[in-house]
Amino acid sequence: MATPKSGAAAALALGLLAATACGGGPGGSGDDSMHVWMYQDSLVVVQEAAVERFNQDSEVDAVIDQVPGDSYQDKVRTVMKSRNRPDVFFNWGGGSIRPYVDADLLMPLDDLMDGDPEFAESFIPSVLDAGKIDGVQYGIPLRGTQPVLVFYNKDVFADAAAEPPETWEDVLELVDTFSDEGITPFALGGADTWTEQMWLQYLVDRIGGPEVFQRIQEGDAEGWRDPAVLKAAETVEDLVDRGAFGKNFASVSFTEGAASALLSEGKAAMHLMGSWEYSTHLDQAPEFAKDSLGYAAFPPMPEGEGDPANVVGNPTNYFSVTSDSAHTDAAAEFLKETSTDAYVKDMVENGEVPTTTDAEDALDDAPTPDFAAFQYEMVRDAPNFQLSWDQALPPETATPMADEIGKLFNGQSTPEQFVDALAELR
Q1: C-alpha dihedral over 338, 342, 344, 346, to 10 degrees?
Q2: 164 secondary structure, DSSP code
């Protein structure tokens, strides 16, 4: 359903349309190739193999242009203002592409999906939906899924004769149990605000359902005043006051590995984190990952309206096609590579958990089959998969939102002040 543009989004859209600067991207090299922009990392080998297969039968040659990850989004924003836009590009869906949709720079993919129902039905619906803007498909899943879940230290739990939480009452009891044992109940890398955001994402969803944030994502800032947001903020305040995250979480860094180390070293009992936490431990504490790392879903909230099977995190990354590409037909065919058996096989071998509906059998070849199966089933069965708030919202909203989340967790604002501040964001 279409919604009115916010002032900031409209201004950005006009700016994009008005910009005519040349240069800035390999897509503007003047050749006849179809340029595919990719975030540069170790997983790009999957897309490189897909390009090789595609080029064997295509009259148009596809070329991958790898862009360094630390500057990827800035370079995309720059090149999308120029005449040298790539034909196809990697993105996060949601707020990361909304400005380009508002500026009519992306090709709607509904005709592609309608014309090939088998392709459209090959993806997990909740993941495919996260590639839509106002109900229109603009993104096709290209990478593995990354839900947020509760990781826990089995040894610490065994020593305390405790079980992983299944209800919110269990969470509160575990907070008290581990606090009494001198163990931080939940590791939290509060130096990186996005780790705190995960708590609010789940709490708002479990308390009020996905409709609460959907309203906000569609541009209605008054959605922050929904009672579910206030209740979630009050729950955070209660957790902090109970000592759920210890006393020094604001100085703990996730990106430097400190939060994960608290879990593997037994100094923390649990850690709410994205599925990449498993890979982090495989790399940094392989014996712990193999023998002592447990995982569970985020529990339901008392009288909550959200389905306990809902998940939050990063559904996946997406390919989008620029509307003025000279190779839109070839691009549409290239996107279909993402659902092939060969593509899925490559993903699994590289440690990713695919988003296709028939990937379950392929997971036997995953580096950690049990965890891959748990993660896959969790996402497959989720009625809704909420994209991380800082990716779902445009930067002009996401950045100040992160600041307010930090203030809430650090006790610098009350739940009521938190809600009021967010409702003022436009």
Answers
A1: -110
A2: -
CA gap 241, 359 in Å, rounded:
43
**All domains of the chain, ordered by start, with CATH?**
7-144+315-382 (3.40.190.10), 146-312+394-423 (3.40.190.10)
Report the run of H or E that residue 132 belongs to, with start and end: strand 132-133
Answer for the pair 252, 187: CB distance below 8 angstroms, yes or no.
yes
Distance of CA 53 to the CA centre of its chain: 28
Select from 171, 187, 129 the least CA-distant residue to 311.
Answer: 129
- The average pLDDT across 313-319 equals 95
Cβ pair 72, 391 in contact under 8 A: no
Task: Express each pLDDT in 272-293 by its tens digit.
Answer: 999 999 988 988 999 999 999 9
283: Cα within 13 Å, side-chain hemisphere? 8
Q: How far is CA 9 from the centre of its chain?
A: 21
pTM of the shown model: 0.86
The tokens for 41 are: 């990392």
215's enclosing H/E stretch is helix 211-217
Q: What is the mean pLDDT of the chain?
A: 91
In the prediction, which pLDDT does 21 show? 33
User: Which pLDDT score is estimated for 8?
Assistant: 36
